[in-house]
Amino acid sequence: MKREVSTDDSTLIPRRDERDIFSAWKISFFGAIGLIIFLVIYKPNPYARILLFLPDGVLRTFQVTVFAILLALVIGLIAGLGRISKIKIINKIATIYVEVVRGIPLLVQIFYIYYALGRIVRIPDIASAIIAMSVCYGAYLAEIIRAGIQSIPLGQMEAALALGLSRRQAMRHIILPQTIKVILPPLGNEFIALLKDSSLVSILAVSDLLRRGREFAAHTFEYFETLTIVALVYLILTLFFSWLVGLMEARLNRNVR
Amino acid sequence: MSDNVKIRIEKATKVFNVYERKRTEPEEISVPRGHAAVPGRRTVASGVQAAVSGLQERRDRKKIRRSKLYALKNVSMNVNRGEVVLVIGPSGSGKSTLLRCINHLEELTDGSIWIDDICVTDPDTDIRKVREEAGMVFQSFNLFPHLDALSNIALAPIVVKGMPRPEANKRARMLLKRVGLEDKEHSYPGQLSGGQQQRVAIARALAMEPHVMLFDEPTSALDPEMIKEVLDVMLALTEEEGMTMVVVSHEMGFAKAAASRVVFMDEGEIVEVGSPDKLFNNPDEERTKRFLEHIL
After folding, report:
1. CB–CB contact B205 A155 (8 Å)
2. Distance CA B284, CA B273 (A)
3. What is the rounded CA–CA span in Å between residue A226 and residue A214?
4. Which residues of chain A lie closer than 8 angstroms to B160, CB-CB?
5. Which of A188, B29, B41, B181 has the fewest CB atoms within 10 Å of its CB?
6. SS3 content of chain A, % helix, strand, coil (to 5)
7. Residue B10 is inside which H or E element, if any?
8. What angle is formed at CA A54 by the lines to CA A53 and CA A56, rounded to 5 degrees?
9. pLDDT digits (tens, 9 = 90+) for B198-208
10. Cα Rg for chain A, rounded, in angstroms?
11. In this prediction, does ipTM exceed 0.95?
12. Nearest 5 degrees, angle CA A93-CA A96-CA A102?
């Protein structure tokens, strides 16, 4: 393998080597795909049937995840800005939200929104799944966003104010664009965790990937085969997400050293 | 106010509250009657003593003393139009604080500061007007790392003044040319040397067309060979435009070349004001002499 000497940061802190054909990501991703293909060809009887049964579930899982991410981002941004607000009451509300939601298991929250609140307002199962997930992950994202904003050196805000920008303009043009770069990796982690946690919504009769798998196995009792495929599909989905996050990271890093 | 005065500082005072835990001497502690205190001893043998020392710790925690630290103490001075005032002084003498108070990055506790007829310290004043009037350059440059040199300069006119982007870019290019960096418009701050970054920072401040420039130790973070390029830009600013400047710096060369007055500050007070020649070579005050001995 050809090695080059470079004097940029990567010699001090190794960065992911994109040119490596056998990167860890590629091994896992193509390994998982290869394993599924192999199983389907080798033993089409249960595996091909399982694979044909699952696409609806994949779609549902994807749908729940994407909507929950978008909603959680909005909630997280509002709560994260609230956490650094100078207005005491807003700050308190945001902090209480984060502390309370962070302290209750997601599964309990899902049950709570669907069954407990279901006695007051009837929320459709998919909607309550998405609401529960985004409320919960909004709290996690709020903390990440707050930490990201606070990691930007004070001098940036000072320089912006000294140029005549208002606090809001400085936030919008100077602080937040820099924050995005800092928080992208932890944000990506949360997205992947959210995707995995979306399997919890299968208890609400939302036929996501896991529930479709269990439905299939309930008829055929082929639990081993079904769950193997379900696990592999989850793996492929999460790896796809981490690839997406890596792509965004690379795009943001392109400009600055 | 005379027409000639650009910045007027009147009895500027800034106080920081310093909270520190007061050390309580063991003797001072009142111990419940019947128990003997063991002065200065924390090794606890019996339960009674444990209770006593616990008590003492609680007292310690409560005795937080608030003391006042004067960053600025009754500072009064005027800066005339077109004048270059150099502020020198040991670290912690309040020179940066004074500068930051002029464009209201920090608030005065007492006193007032005027730029022309705008009162900086009046809470009703639109601070943004003040900041358009006074540009500031920082010790650590504080360029925006996510924007290239051109956008760093063009951002404020676009956002604050609502200038159309092509016009702002055109003016930013002119400013870059003025600081000698016309070939660096697409470089990001991380790709520029310290001296180049500081020149972009000066151009960025100039983009808002200020009439006063405040320099907070503009060359302290630079390698020696880059100091000159920054000072040259500052020098050109005074010579070509007659810009009013307040500079916190210990650059003797710049002082002799450009400064009309040098102000020596110590412990939040102005100790001595004089021409660079007088103050550096033949200071009146003892404190000034002692300080100059250290830096020369």
Report:
1. no
2. 10
3. 8
4. 163-165, 169
5. B41
6. 80, 0, 20
7. strand B5-21
8. 100
9. 999 999 999 99
10. 22
11. no
12. 135
